[in-house]
Amino acid sequence: MTEIQDRASWREPTETEAAVADVRSVGHDLDNPDDLDRLVDRFGDRTYVLIGEASHGTSEFYRWRSRLTARLIQERDFSFVAVEGDWTDCYEANRYVKGLPESPETGREVLETFDRWPNWMWANWEVLEFLDWLEVHNQLRDEDDRVGFYGLDVYSLFESLEAVVDYLEDVDPDAAAEAREAYRCFEPYGEDAQEYAQALRMVPETCEDEVLETLTQLQEAAPAYDHGRDDYFNAEQNALVAKNAEQYYREMARGNTDSWNIRDRHMVETLERLQSHYGPDSKGIVWAHNTHVGDARATDMEQRGRLNIGQLVRQHEGPSDTALIGMGTYRGTVIAAESWNAPMEELTVPPARQGSYEHVFDRAGGHDQFLVTDDLDDDTALSQPRGHRAIGVVYHPDRESGNYVPTVLPDRYDAFIHLDETSALHPLVQHADRTHVPDLYPWGL
Predict the structure, then answer these.
(1) E strands, 87-244, where?
(2) PANTHER family attached here (predicted)?
(3) Which of 102, 167, 205, 439 has CA 20 to 30 A from 54's CA?
(4) pTM above 0.90, yes or no
(5) Residue 359 has pLDDT above 70, yes or no
(6) CATH number (domain holding residue 210)
(7) Is the pLDDT of residue 1 over 50?
(8) Can you give the pLDDT at residue 3?
């Protein structure tokens, strides 16, 4: 057991009472969007604001994240939103919100193409209403000043391969033919990345050289291409995704923990490419799970050899240019599944484990609130390691004890939003008719 695990495994009642008192002393009620003023003022000048969530299936996490994002875009001129989603799917959302030529006509049309499991993460009413808001917001801006929406993730191996060939067909048919020939290495796997990974367990012949060669050739030939800047950036990113995805699935097949690190390093590389693409003064917002957003060094992840986006961005940019904002809940309902690729369900989230951070915040008022960790004293009781709930896309409420990450909360986040009782997300496939979905943004975005 690591030191953080051991110290977080139990808490004396007196320590919990001290932590409750500290939350009460610096916490702020969160009742409406105006209550976000403190977060906007404190973090609006940062280069990156990373907004986490304790699950991918909680409506309130998506709603408060969207409200904070909208205010940062409107009031602090943030340039793009980058999410824990596939580059290829999210680029279609980017085309829609920017009104690019031949873009999808509606946000719903975009999200209904998100078919990788768990598609409820993005194909839901909460995200749809944000995309529609962003599309309207962008109509009032010059074309070169429109806010983008992008995917950071590494899973879209075959989709990205296809996108590279499609781009080259338009600008360099000979290079397209070479890329198509190189990518024949993947043909035996039927455009199924999981099948590619499984095959590597038995036959260690990889397609590593092919994807790297295509990326290199694309980058070398770019100056000669007559193409739009965004079109080339998209193609180059897809080539990069293909290279890193092949490495990710290869390491996963070997059972290496480094596959996690490959994924998060790729997400940070993509984030930095976006910031460079938008220009030196641009600023970006990240949406991802707390396990990617909160600094891994403040958890037991570091002892297990894992890093994450929050840690890397803090190290690369410095704490003063980065804001890490976590979110958690005490109880409620959530969309998740009982196993990988299983149908989604609405599941009950039981009251948080005694002594956890979620339990502390509930004891501190039993209502929605947030705190900025710099407002805490250096000797705050909240700096004692505690369990911090993390709900995955696979979730078993009856095994709740395994859903807590040992955490030093003030070191993990710059701010933490606690939503005491939350409700399940509203996936499009489950709620095809908007009539049966509640008013998600009664105050607007």
Answers:
(1) 148-153
(2) ESTERASE, PUTATIVE (AFU_ORTHOLOGUE AFUA_1G05850)-RELATED (PTHR31299:SF0)
(3) 439
(4) yes
(5) yes
(6) 1.20.1440
(7) no
(8) 58
